[in-house]
Every structure is written in C-alpha cells, then in structure tokens.
Amino acid sequence: MKFNWFGTIDFSGWFSAPESLEYRKSLGDDAIYEYNHNLALLAANYIADLLNTQVLGSPSQVGFMSNVELPINEPYSFDLQFKIEQHILKEYGLRLKLFHFKDKWYIRLSAQLNLCFEDFKLAGKALKRTLELNLNEL
To answer: Which UniProt keywords apply (predicted)?
Structure first.
C-alpha cells in the first residue's frame, strides 16, 4: 500500500499535551488573554513606530493578532512577498507573514504565550533592515 502512514514522526506534542493543559489552567484564561492581547498591541505599535507606518484597525479589533502597514511602494506580487519572507527567514531565522490589502502591504503579528516583547523587537529590526535593501535584488 502506498502512503499508508499519514501521521507525524514527532510525538512530542502528544506527550506534552497534559502538562501544557495543566500549565494553561494554572495561569487562567483571563490572564492568558490579557497577556497576549497586550503583547499584540505593544508589538504592533512598536513596529509601526519603527517603520513610521500605522496599525491596521483599532485596538478593540485586536485579539492576539495585529497587522502593521509596511513602507513598500511596489505593487503586489507573490514573488516579491516570497522573496522578502525568505530573506528574513534565511538571514534572521524568523518566519514572518506579509500580505497585501487595499493596495498596501502589511505584516501580520501573532502574540502567543511563549513569546515576549523582545521577540517582536527582533522581528521589527529584521524587517526594517530588510526593507532598507533594494527589494528587487533580494
């Protein structure tokens, strides 16, 4: 039979699930929400200030994710999006997600319990340095 195993070769997620659920319970849903929400807002405002752009939407629209406008004046192309994302991944070891909406480029930031503000500062600096390059030469 071809392709008879559709599962994972890494079972660590399954083995760590009970401890993860216990940890989440010990913190409480309200504290997790507050941490992630505040981190998403802080990160978005930091990166928007760093890039001299703005956050898409209002703070009340932010749950754990926020979107920050990017200072890219190029028309959208999947090729350019891919090149920017790959450059950041190869040069900085960070996976960032860009997207295009209403003729503007954005980055989507996702706050998680295992992240801290320093992670977003690093992402912002990597993004700023990348966008200062000639994007057509990436």
So the answer is: Pyridoxal phosphate
Residue numbers of the chain with a pLDDT score lower than 70: 1-8
| Domain assignment of residue 37, given as a range | 18-137
Alpha-carbon Rg of the chain, whole angstroms?
18
Q: What is the domain count for the chain?
A: 1
**Could you give the residue ranges of the DSSP H alpha helices within 11-115?**
12-27, 29-51, 78-92
For residue 40, with 0-12 CB atoms within 10 Å meaning exposed, 13-18 middle and 19 or more buried, which class applies? Answer: buried
| Domain annotation covers residue 4 | no
Enter the pTM of the model.
Answer: 0.86
Using one digit for the tens of pLDDT, what is the confidence trace for 97-113? 999 999 999 999 999 99
DSSP letter at 57 equals: S
